[in-house]
Each structure stands twice: as structure tokens, then as C-alpha cells.
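User: Hi! I'm working on a homework problem where we have to compare a predicted structure to a textbook description. Could you give me the structure for the chain below?
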Amino acid sequence: MLKDAERLRQFKEGFSAHLFRVVRVTFDLPDRSVETLFNASISTLERRRREQKNLDPIASERLDRIASICHLGKEVFASKEATAIWMSKPNKALGGSVPILLCDTEIGARQVRRVLHALEWGNAT
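Assistant: Happy to help. Predicted C-alpha cells:
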């Protein structure tokens, strides 16, 4: 894991815009969900990708948040595929919310982490 200072530097520089497509495909997200997660329209994200520009700092931070939670999920479920499936389905422990869609805020991401830790310790569904 990178230190916080390095992560902050990466947010400011921005991650590659092609990564929004990876998230969309991995979690089978509709355009509207992608726009919410990355705080940008699909046309803006596609334009950045075509022009080989990076995501803005907000979208980059959200991408880092998703990656961090997926890393935890992989530890819990022992596979990327199982993590992607779990992250893409409504979850009763999250009030019926879809975990990936809660990653647009730190508070939502904290809730997802809490459930993943509970699963890891055998205390959640």
C-alpha cells in the first residue's frame, strides 16, 4: 500500500481516464451509476479517455477508494470475481444498497468496509 502523501499526489495528478471503463465493465454499471461514481458525465469521461487526459482529483480519489475496498474484498472473498459480484448486488446489511454505489462518498465506503470486516470475522450476511 502507498503512503497517504503518495496517494494524495496521485489524486492531484489524476488517474488514467480509461480506468472508468474498467470499473463500468467489472461491476456491470449503467451510465448513470458511472456518472455518479466519477462525478462526471459519460461524454466527459469518454472525451478524457480519447484525449488521453487524466481523471480529475475527485474522480481519482473515488477510484482509489473503490480500489482500496476491492482490495479488502479480495482478502475476504479470496477472488476478484467474487468481490466484483458481491460489490455489484444489493446488500441487506447495507440497507439494500449496492456496495459499489456507496463508494462515491467516504461515509458510504466506511459502511462497505464495516460489512466486509464483519464478513471477514463471520458476523454478517
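For your comparison, note the following. The chain has a mean pLDDT of 93. The helical segments are 4-13, 19-26, 31-38, 42-50, 57-77, 80-88, 99-102, 106-120. Good luck with the assignment!
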